[in-house]
Amino acid sequence: xxxxxxKSGFVTLIGRPNxxxxxxxxxxxxxxxxxxxxxxxxxxxxxxxxYTDERGQIIFLDTPGIHKAKNKLGxxxxxxxxxxxxxxxxxxxxxxxxxxxxxxxxQIVEKLNKCKTPIILVINxxxxxxxxxxxxxxxxxxDLCDFAEIVPVSAIKGENTAELMxxxxxxxxxxxxxxxxxxxxxxxxxxxxxxxxxxxxxxxxSDEIPHGIAVVIDRMKEREGxxxxxxxxxxxxxxxxxxxxxxxxxxxxxxxxxxxxMLKLIGTHARKEIENLLDCRVNxxxxxxxxxxxRDSDFLIKNYGFNPKDFEF
Length: 313
Description:
Blueprint: E1 7-14, H1 21-29, E2 47-53, E3 56-62, H2 72-84, E4 90-95, H3 103-112, E5 119-123, H4 134-141, E6 149-152, H5 161-170, H6 189-204, E7 214-222, E8 237-246, H7 249-256, H8 261-278, E9 281-290, H9 298-303
Parallel strand pairs: 1-3, 1-4, 4-5, 5-6, 8-9
Antiparallel strand pairs: 2-3, 7-8
Helix pairs in contact: 6-8
């Protein structure tokens, strides 16, 4: 009797900023872990998530978008994305459905042509084009790299994502279960909570501010004597204190808003998702601090959850 082969491996998602990497990863694992927004460079760290089924286990690594860095934080983000290409079993390169191949895509092509890892070209956002346009787009990309496969999908609508999973498993090696089958991510809860707060700020604030913000969790603790404070659903209560870091005094005023209205709005939106994540009630308190040019400070970058050693590439 033949024993079924168990497959496992590491898959990275790369691409220019705002092509839908985090949206696709969230859809593939069936749960929101990576934050999303319509602003580029939303993802700053390498986020690792785990998908397990009867075929095996896939560890997805969502990386920051590859772009031209303008500060040390930008250099960090690009180095994380580029180094990850060499560490995985399979690369998913996400592109938008366009025949225009700009400088950003050419930069990625240059990196990919130096690696020996199998590459799947994933044409995302196909819900935004007519089906007859797809062949022209595939023709524009197919000779740029030695692609193992080309798979068109719509991450936001889930179109053709099941087929993408089948293709991914095709290229996974035989291997062990790296994580318990219930594991979804290796990210600490505090980091996910900080990212959810940053996501709401990204979505609600004006364009010039979000790239200059970070979120630090100062305190995250279940309230003492909480057994007397359960609501009708029996939920516990966690107190979370967090600080939004920005680079300018003028930005601080915008983040707080008139009479604290914007900060309250960010907190209200973030609290709902944090409660869904932690499956309990949350008392969220937000503050805002100014740290000028923190994105060019090795000390502050590290202090806000980024590792300057990751610049070494």
